[in-house]
Amino acid sequence: MLTDNIGIDLLAATPFSHDISLPGVGKIAETKQLSPSLVVQYYFGHAESKLRPYIGGGVNFTNFYDNEFTNDLDGALSDLSMGNSWGLAAQVGIDYQVNKNWLVNASIWYAQISTEVKFNLGGSPTTIETDIDPWVYMVSVGYAF
């Protein structure tokens, strides 16, 4: 918390894996992503309140890596790449103060993630515009020092 009503939150998690598919063909590749989101939050009510809802807004950065073909269609696919993504992030949540130091939190996050999947198909450059845009649901326990 920066003040009684303003906080900062960083959502970071272990990498996620995604399949990349083509219509009529199915899965052709897979990738991993690491996508931290940083938001500034506004907490409603007083710092001493047991129940404090909040909203937040900020930015998401997504790094795609370990992009690899799982089916290269007998050599027809090559040169797989995916660009990193910058997008908006939003959050709503609520804190319940159990006692002076411990709290329980529930929140919902949204992250805007878009990328271009690029590869050569039979020697022709091909690009697929991809939106992931996940919703993340969390329940956590916190300790204030």
TrEMBL record:
One of its GO terms (biological process) is transmembrane transport. Pfam families: OmpW. This is Outer membrane protein OmpW, putative. Gene3D superfamilies: 2.40.160.20. One of its GO terms (cellular component) is outer membrane. It comes from the Bacteria.
